[in-house]
Specification:
single chain; Nucleotidyltransferase, domain 5; 6-stranded mixed β-sheet; 5 helices
Length: 172
C-alpha cells in the first residue's frame, strides 16, 4: 500500500473512524489513538518490536477493536529536515505495515517527540521506570497530535508539510 500525503489519508477515512499513531523504535513501537473527531490523540500502549507479520497482526487487531481506518507513522527526519537512513527505514517499514494490514498510511515528522515527552515527564516528577514504561506511547501521541493539528489548522502542500494558506476549504 502506498504512503499517502496526510490530507489524503484524512480525507479517505470514513466518518467516525480513528487514526492510529505509531512511533517505531528498535525495541518497542509506541501506539496512540485519535478520537473519532480526529481532534485529540491519546497514548494507547506499546507493542514489542518484532517480525513485521506479528506487529502487523497486533496493529490490525487494535484497528479492528478501536474502529481505526488509517495509520500515521512517525518519520525520524534529521534535525535539518534531511531524509537519512533512519527515515528511509521508517518509510520502508510503514509501507510494508500498510501492505500487511491493508490500512492506508501517512508519515509525519517526529523530530524531538521523545525528547519533548521525556522532558514533560521529568517535569511531572515521574520516576525513570515510569517514564520508560510510558514514553513510547506518549511519543506516538505527541506525533499523532501534531499531525491532527496540522491538518485542522493549515493547508498542506503536496509533500504533506504545512503551508501558510489557512485552513483547507477556506478562502484567504
Amino acid at each position: 500500500m502506498p504512503v499517502l500525503p496526510l490530507p489524503d489519508l484524512r480525507a479517505s477515512l470514513p466518518r467516525g473512524q480513528r487514526l492510529i499513531g505509531l512511533d517505531p523504535g528498535s525495541k518497542l513501537i509506541g501506539v496512540a489513538l485519535s478520537d473519532v473527531l480526529l481532534m485529540l490523540a491519546s497514548p494507547y500502549g506499546s507493542i514489542k518490536r518484532g517480525k513485521l507479520k506479528a506487529n502487523a497482526a497486533e496493529v490490525a487487531a487494535i484497528a479492528a477493536r478501536e474502529g481505526a481506518g488509517g495509520l500515521v507513522v512517525g518519520l525520524p527526519l534529521g534535525m535539518d529536515g534531511s531524509f537519512g537512513p533512519a527515515a528511509q527505514a521508517a518509510k520502508d517499514w510503514a509501507m510494508a505495515l500498510g501492505e500487511a494490514t491493508g490500512l492506508p498510511v501517512a508519515l509525519w515528522d517526529e523530530r524531538l517527540s521523545s525528547s519533548a515527552v521525556n522532558r514533560a515527564m521529568i517535569e511531572a516528577d515521574l520516576t525513570r521506570a515510569k517514564r520508560a514504561a510510558a514514553v513510547d506511547a506518549a511519543a506516538a501521541a505527541y506525533t499523532l497530535q501534531s499531525a491532527l493539528d496540522a491538518t485542522r489548522q493549515s493547508a498542506l502542500d503536496a509533500t504533506g508539510q504545512p503551508t501558510l494558506l489557512g485552513r483547507p476549504g477556506r478562502q484567504g
